[in-house]
Prior knowledge:
Blueprint: H1 2-18, H2 42-55, H3 57-60, H4 99-108, H5 123-133, H6 162-179, H7 181-184, H8 222-231, H9 247-265
Helix pairs in contact: 2-5, 4-5, 6-9, 8-9
Amino acid sequence: MRMKLCSLCSVLAAALVAGWVGPTHGLAQNAPVLPNPRLPNADFLQRGKVVYQQHCLGCHGEKGDGNGPGAYGLFPKPRNFTSGIFKFRTTPSGMLPTDDDLVRTVRQGLYGSSMPPFDLMPERDVLSVVQYVKTFSEAWRNADNYLPPLSIPAPPDWFSNPKEWTARAAKGKVVYDASCIACHGPAGNGKGDSAASLVDIWNQPIKPANLAKTQVRSGRNLTDIYKAMVTGVNGTPMPSFIESMAEDQRWEMVAYVDQLRRERKAGKLVVAAPPPPGAPAPAAPATPAPQPAAPAKKNTSEYE
């Protein structure tokens, strides 16, 4: 019995020294003191450092600042972990991600970026490197940066009803035109009037998502679009719409984005490229002689 108590005391003492357990007032009642689940788990850190050095250091850098030897020329830039700012989460705007959020990013990668999916990496290695990433920022030691994840519901049943889906998408276009068109553009391709001037919190140029493509950076499901709308994308101009839109409006806008994707896939979403800056205006054509009507030629080019 004495040996067991000594072992328990050693474990608790080590945890306290490392700063990974909370107040000790419960010890008098023999209640276990559990580590904060958001703080680095010491059991994983050693392995996490090895995994990070093998797979992540090249882009994210030895110090986790996004300045690894392979980072030059990458767009978007590798994440700077020292800032404690993570774009893709299920937590509210401005908050740190959950471990599940970080694991998801490692597993599936980030579409349209240099972050590949590590879907074949052993589970323990994924969990380990997620813990090691937390050592780069003091943000993980500030309880004010923690909030529970938001509930991301499944798409409403009307998505499977073509007639209602069409009607809802039409409503979603109205919301889109009022809230999103300036950045994402009329065709949803990320080429709105404001797009060229956008920068992220690190003052790096940033492009709005091309919503007409098959997936956004954090995933290919409709729930990934909805998630970005309610959580926002930390460190970017993309805000959260959790307060400014009702749930029905958010799903209706998702339906409209889904419509843009379907039209693009079907080759119906065509936006002509503007002339280059400074190009002379085309001369007015002479009035042509009447010609027999020719069949319309399908334009399959896209401006994206």
